[in-house]
Specification:
Blueprint: E1 8-9, E2 12-13, H1 14-28, H2 34-53, H3 61-88
Antiparallel strand pairs: 1-2
């Protein structure tokens, strides 16, 4: 089962890191909408996959699938969290 608390790098939750990076890139390049969702998934994959590979490189298809799924979950859950908060807060 996926345990997001296991995705902590140097004391920083990986989802929080993805959220911060996406916000930074979004502001820097003035992005919005679906582009931000795609970027969030890409950033999540780019950070979660190497993190998962750090300890052991999987030798089975199931191991690789788990790594890809975790990367997608990190990226898309961050995007979903952003949309959830954005819809319920005042725009500045």
């Amino acid at each position: 089962m996926f345990d997001p608390s296991a995705l902590i790098v140097a004391g920083v939750p990986l989802m929080a890191l993805v959220f911060g990076l996406v916000e930074f890139i979004k502001t820097l390049f003035e992005m919005d909408g679906k582009k931000v969702t795609v970027m969030s998934a890409i950033v999540g994959l780019a950070l979660a996959i190497p993190y998962q590979l750090y300890n052991v490189i999987p030798t089975t298809f199931g191991g690789w699938m788990e790594i890809v799924i975790i990367g997608v979950v990190v990226g898309l859950s961050t995007s979903g969290f952003y949309k959830f908060v954005a819809a319920r807060t005042e725009k500045l």
